[in-house]
Amino acid sequence: MRRPPKDTEDSRRRITRRGLVLGGGMLGFMGVLAARMRYMQVDQAEQFRLLAEENRINIRLIPPARGLIFDRTGTPVAENAQNYRLVIVREDVGDLDETFAMLRKLVPLTDEDVERALREIRRRSPFVPVTIADQLAWKDVAEVAVNAPALPGVTPEVGLTRHYPLAHDFAHVVGYVGPVSDYDLGKLENPDPLLQIPKFQIGKVGFEAKEEDLLRGSAGTKRIEVNAGGRVMRELSRQEGKKGADIQLTIDHGLQNFVNARLAGESAAAVVLEVETGDILAISSAPSFDPNLFVRGISGKDYRSLTENDHRPLADKSVQGTYPPGSTFKLVTALAAHEAGVVTAGETIYCPGYKQLGTRRFHCWKRGGHGRVDLHGSLMHSCDVYYYELAERVGIDRISEMARRLGIGIRHDLPMSAVAEGLAPSKAWKQERYGEAWRVGDSLNAAIGQGYVLASPLQLAIMVSRVATGQMIRPRLIKSIDAVEQPIGTDGPLGVSPTTLSQIRKAMYAVSNARGGTAYASRLLPENMRFAGKTGTSQVRSVVVHNASVPWEHRDHALFVCFAPFDAPKIAVSVVIEHGGGGSAVAAPVARDIVARALHGDLPPLDIFPAGVRDSVAERFQSMPLRDRTGMPPVSDRA
Amino acid sequence: MSYLEYRVQTTPTGLSKLLYINWGLVLLLISVASVGFLMLYSVAGGSLQPWAEPQMKRFAIGMIGMFAIAMVPIHIWRNTAGLAYALSVMLLVAVEVMGSIGMGAQRWIEIGPIRLQPSEFTKIAVVMFLAAYYDWLDIRKVSRPLWVLIPLIIILLPTFLVLKQPDLGTAILLVAGGGILMFAAGVHWAYFAVVIASGVGLVSAVIESRGTPWQLIKDYQFRRIDTFLNPDSDPLGAGYHITQSKIALGSGGWAGRGFMQGTQSRLNFLPEKHTDFIFTTLAEEFGFVGAASLLTLYALIIVFCIASAVSNKDRFASLMTIGIAATFFLYFAVNMSMVMGMAPVVGVPLPLVSYGGSAMLVLLAAFGLVQSGHVHRPRERS
Fold this sequence. Notes:
By secondary structure, chain A is of the alpha+beta class. Chain A has 22 helices and 23 strands. Chain B has one domain (about 5-185, about 240-375). Chain B has a three-stranded antiparallel β-sheet with strand order 1-2-3, with helices on one face. In chain B, β2 and β3 form a beta hairpin.
């Protein structure tokens, strides 16, 4: 190839010059790069290092174990059970369809479960564990574990979930927990970050809800390293949280179970208090429900069967339910009148079977009248006219004041849901509430626990324990928190003359121990078990009719309150049986059995009951759905 | 003076050519590639697979190719420059017609197991052809408009094809590399002033065209530019790459986090950590010291090439060496600017370090040409 000679020294110098300029330029730009590098890596290193740390480190919460709840004997009432669930990690699974087909043979899985799991799997990154099934039985988990080699990517996991081993017995007291909802979060001003954990369980109802702060504990944290996709690479450090406080209740689970069983079939409530301390030994509302259903997530069918039941299983009648206390309120009227000095214990009042007030006639429950009755007789026979007279003399305001002193019409501070205030009506109250003046007739109704007066079974038990001790004891539900004994509360002495109290107690003793007393049939024989009580029958409808012939929901409420033993009171009991009929016939035997069980400490022997009722008591005990049947008396052979 | 005007017998022949190879440059290339192997080993979590080992094999093949090319007399390369250019343009057309689709861009042709990326080859072919053109052209005509237009066409034809792929990175490298070569060849500086001015105009036009029917670049390219201008506006979306890259780089500090200790790359915060963003891993794990060392190696390669070029009396070899040095420079300058947040993300690998076959083989072939020019340079009898 021949080309003209054109390469001059000049061109070569130009190329050299330009080559050097270019080289210089390139090196110059490299200097700029180096300067930038230095600026970022040396001057700003701190800042970028921080950003890198923020990138890679996530802080995760470790949910604390919820505090346990025990009864007064140390038996667990609410515990944290291991909850077995199956999780699947998509990237470890071979054939997804095959895996699910195999799983369905081993574990009860509905189409819905599978559909939900598949949807979740599609939505998440392949390394994120997705829960397939929750709340599995150990048997199912074991099946899966055995078949693990054939099920790659499927692993059983264990977590904690609330479990109530005593199921129905403590449903109303302890309540239940459930996953935190948006509604729950909305209620809180400064929610605990723990609540953001999906499916974190918080107290929804009852003690679990009221003492949530104590039971929840505080979250621990762990610093974990994550990659860009959010996959956890390793744990860097861990700070354990604080477990929730363990709480011991004052309730005795054996007695609680007995009371529950004794009320079975009724729509009723009963409360047993220890009179000296105010400890609630048993507090029961029947029918009850299984709180474990709610923890798992109750089915629509189960929930409907609870809400549509006319015996209202979900309501806690022992503290939420308020009833006209009926004749049990005569204790209040008697105390108010005697303390006011408008009557003396020995003074007799004539009962012709009614009291005439203007044009209105107020009847005694006994049409023929009781004749002349004093304090003792009036309580023993539950004469109404005596109390009409007392009410007229003493006036409603002093009755109301006495009611509050005895614990009716004030809200007792208990960690349970919707503790009712009850109602001790006064003139001012009626004026405010209805804009009407109080009338003497209202006082007469109130005197026998009808009309406006309302009390919860808990308040009735408090009333009796205050009568029994002369002290304004406060009810106590928490015995200890993390083994620290809680103080016993009292509002000081009742401030009623001991003589009056003593006369009232004696009259109450006569109710259930003297022939002719309204609860004589329900007496207990041993000296150290004899109880002093008061029957009550409160009208649901104003017309007095024969109870057996009217529909259940129109029948009278049956009430009975008592303390025992009479000589040295230990316990106070109140029983309210909705639409049960008469207090002496229906409520008193229930209270008697509860007293016998409470004082004996176990299922009582039959010989403490009067011979005439032993068979029926034995039969009753046999048919009761008791948890522990030791000491069960044999059914007598009546053939 | 052209090589042909010297006596051929003064140039080395046979295996003795090996003595005249620029061994310093070879050593530098091996050093840079070794940095690459180390980083590929690191980003694979301390494993030769899947990147380090294939890269080593390719480097070995590339080195053999480099020596083979270096042994061939430089005038043969000059004479085949036109052919190489024609071939590269044809391949670009072929890729356009039958190329397979990868990453949303058609960039390679598969011939059996070989995946050929013609755009890489084009960069060198353009440099060769331009060098041959200026070797042939009378030095006095260099700045005449007609003779300026021809190299412009030589540059812009493949640029147009590459942009259609679309591969903005290669297009920038082609234009800038070709421009530098024209500058080196002695084209009057006024042309460059005009081109730069019109370049600014073009950029404005591109930006203006946004959203109109005659929009000049794709939406995703616009978004990359937005991201570059303000990466913090969308730190988890489009700005993610730049933000994470800067964090990785900056957090390296003075001496780095240590080999295989880079949290950003190890935890996958870095995108494309084995290819375009491998420099960030180096900077994170070896800090400013490591990053500056690599930059120094690159600088030395440039210095060696420029020194070889200016001392070479063969115009073709001299211009081609400058052109190849410029292309090499553009590779790492654009890549580093990009990962340091000084330039938009355009997809240019870090030369000899990033994982990838085509770029490495083509670059080593190019250095083979540089070596050929170095070995066969005209020598005066002493």
